[in-house]
Every structure is written in structure tokens, then in C-alpha cells.
Design brief:
This protein has helices at residues 27-30, 82-96; strands spanning 2-3, 8-16, 34-42, 46-47, 51-55, 61-69. The protein is an alpha+beta fold. It has a 4-stranded antiparallel β-barrel with strand order 2-3-5-6. It has a two-stranded antiparallel sheet with strand order 1-4.
């Protein structure tokens, strides 16, 4: 898939291989590489999977493997926690002066 210069993209890069990690990091961390995913504007027309350069929103130039065009956020805040809803109601009551919840 060809991605045009100037497109909003995401790249992936291995910053440090597992043998290059500082010896002071936890043992399980030593077993994996330090990886980076960065979003920015593509500097040249490129294909997914190619080594590319991007310019981030703050103007930093980064290089890495092009993995996504028009990346989206796919995170959430986990499962519903009823206690959080109750805490919100208590705080709202307290702040409004209607302290009927406790």
C-alpha cells in the first residue's frame, strides 16, 4: 500500500536490542528490546513495511519501519467499575452542598 508524503502515519523502531539494555533494569526487562512507536508526517512517498522518516508534531525527525497510515487510538479505560461511579456521585453531592450520600 503506497502512502503519500505528508500523510499522518505511525512507525516502529527498536531503540535498544535486549543485549544493549542497561544492567540496572529489572531482569524481565533485560529480556526484551526497548521499542518505540511514534506518529508523525511522512517525509517521502513510501510503502508499509519500508524504512522511512517522519516529522513529529513537535518537529522532531524520526526514522523507523512504516507500520500504519492514518493510525487511530484503540485504547480504553478497562472494564466498568461500579465503585468509581459511586465515588463520582458522592463527590458531586459534596461539591454541590447536597451531602445526601454520606
Amino acid at each position: 500500500m503506497m502512502v503519500k508524503k505528508g500523510s499522518w502515519v505511525q512507525i516502529h523502531k527498536i531503540v535498544l536490542d535486549k543485549g544493549e539494555r542497561a544492567p540496572s533494569v529489572p531482569e524481565d526487562t533485560l529480556e526484551v528490546p526497548l521499542e518505540m512507536w511514534v506518529k508523525g508526517f511522512l517525509e517521502e512517498d513510501s510503502e508499509i513495511g519500508e524504512q522511512v522518516k517522519i516529522k513529529t508534531l513537535v518537529g522532531r525527525i524520526e526514522d523507523g519501519i512504516l507500520i500504519k497510515a492514518s493510525p487511530t487510538f484503540k485504547h480504553n479505560y478497562g472494564d466498568f467499575v461500579p465503585e468509581i461511579l459511586e465515588i463520582g456521585q458522592i463527590i458531586n453531592s459534596f461539591l454541590s452542598g447536597d451531602d445526601t450520600n454520606g
